[in-house]
Specification:
It is a single chain. The protein is α+β, with helices and mostly antiparallel strands. It has a single domain, classed as Nuclear Transport Factor 2, Chain: A (Roll). It is 19% helix and 51% strand. The chain has two helices and six strands; from the N terminus they run ββαββββα. The chain has a six-stranded mixed sheet, with helices on both faces. The protein is globular and about 40 Å long. It starts with 5 loop residues before the first strand and ends in a 5-residue tail after the last helix.
Length: 101
């Protein structure tokens, strides 16, 4: 993977800016139970970030458990994520951020 930006392997904490962040959480709770994001790596690109990990949850209607790779590109302002786009293929997140594997 590209070494652009600083890489963080420890847990990170940030806030989703309201009201979109609140809507995102409410919509997840309506569709899934046991929602868990495991973030294994975050690349700090200044105002932007790219994160990699896994999304785990269970469908409320189906009861089916899912465990899929996750890539995320975000824009940060004042320690709040003001834009986030999620990808089931982490390589697509890298590409969206202008980076390469």
């Amino acid at each position: 993977m590209s070494r652009a930006g600083r890489t963080h392997d420890q847990q990170a904490s940030f806030t989703l800016a309201p009201p979109a962040g609140h809507r995102f959480i409410v919509e997840l709770a309506e569709e899934f139970d046991g929602v868990h994001f495991d973030v294994g790596e975050i690349r700090d690109l200044g105002e932007r970030l790219v994160g990699f990990g896994r999304f785990r949850a269970r469908g409320n209607a189906s009861g089916v458990e899912i465990d899929v790779p996750l890539g995320m590109v975000g824009v940060m302002r004042e320690k709040k994520v003001v834009y986030a786009r999620f990808f089931s293929d982490p390589a697509e997140a890298l590409e969206a951020a202008g980076l390469r594997e």
